[in-house]
Amino acid sequence: MDNITKMIVINSSKVLPSDVVIKLYESNADVMIKETCFGVMVSGERSVVDKLLSETRKIDPYGIFIKERGFAPGEPNRCRATRRGGARPGFHMLETEEKLLPQIAQGLRALDKGEIPPRKMKKKKLELEKLMEIIKNAEVS
Amino acid sequence: MKVFIYPTNSLILFDLVERFGHEPLAVMQEISKRVNTPGLDSPPMNITPEDPKIGLKYAAVEVPSGVRGRMALNGPLISKAEAAIIVRDPVVSFGCMGCARTNELVNFLIRAKKIPILDLDYPSNEEEAKEFVYKISQFLKSLGQEEKK
Asked: How deeply is B64 buried, as exposed, middle or buried, from its count of CB atoms within 10 A (0-12, 13-18, 19+)?
């Protein structure tokens, strides 16, 4: 049996971690659920967790982000409670990427609307003649 | 298709690859294999003295054992990869990701593998984010078409 843990990171104005937890309990699936400040962690058999979370994503497709986690919830070697506090390893990555989530959500909305972002003009390098001209103009006569 | 992501523990990339119907290859899967096997010799990540030896497959013996130990995690993912999404110079290259030489080696190995690669930068505003998501979706769609062929 292949057991995995997945974490749901919620960045939504409509959904709270507690709402997601209630939905997960309602499903009656054979999984372990832990509510956290950033979302929810779900641990169980791979097929069950994958199916459950793909359904959960539908609650708010632009506000729910999911990734796998190496450690099970409450793992004593990883848990801050047994490691005397401090940032959990992996926290900094999560913190940095969480700031980008509202923008990524906008990107996903735009994609679903069929918007095609305009191609960016590549910045040209400064031509030598122009540089020479700038230097010439800057020289004190 | 199995898509390698870099940064290897990225939430955004993992989510987008899975959302668009492919299998992301992330370092968490390798860690999970290590910590969920019975008998934890070296907590928290169970990187034992055996791992730098496994890393010898990817880096020479004079390379620091830290690089080789990290390669024991990243190497199997690279060998499984059928495509890759790489974010250039991620700001968060610290913590478990913090070894610059490992990051260079990972980037080199993935490029040397000659598989489809998408190079991106993390978005800093909404317009860039739209482009970021659009490029990833188009890249993953094209992989799906390649697979059908």
From this structure: middle
CA distance B54 to B69: 8
List of chain B residues whose C-beta atoms are within 8 Å of the C-beta of residue A9 = 11
Residues B7-49: tens digit of each pLDDT: 998 999 999 999 999 999 999 999 888 888 777 777 777 888 8
Structure-derived torsion over alpha carbons of residues B149, B4, B104, B31, reported in degrees to the nearest 10: -150
B132 touches chain A (CB under 8 A): yes
ipTM of the complex in this document: 0.89
Show me where the domains of chain A are located.
Answer: 3-113
Q: What is the dihedral of CA A23, B22, B129, B87, to 10 degrees?
A: 120
Q: Which chain A residue has the Cα nearest residue B123? A: A100
**Residue ranges of B 95-124 with Cβ closer than 8 A to chain A:** 95-97, 122-123
Q: B126 contacts in A (CB within 8 Å)?
A: 103, 106-107
Q: Do A104 and B133 touch (CB under 8 A)?
A: yes
Instruction: Please tell me what DSSP assigns to residue A73.
Output: T
Q: Kindly report the nearest CA distance between residue A113 and chain B, in angstroms.
A: 11
Give yes or no for a contact between B12 and A100, defined as CB atoms under 8 angstroms apart: yes
Q: Do A108 and B97 touch (CB under 8 A)?
A: no
Angstrom distance (rounded) from CA B145 to CA B141: 6
Q: SS3 for A40? A: strand
For domain A3-113, the CATH architecture is 2-Layer Sandwich (3.30)
Tell me which of 3.40.50, 3.40.630, 1.20.58, 3.30.2010 is the CATH number of domain B2-144: 3.40.50
Q: Quick one: tokens of A43?
A: 């641990």
Could you tell me the pTM of the whole model?
0.89
- Residue A31 burial by CB count (10 A; 0-12/13-18/19+): exposed, middle or buried? buried
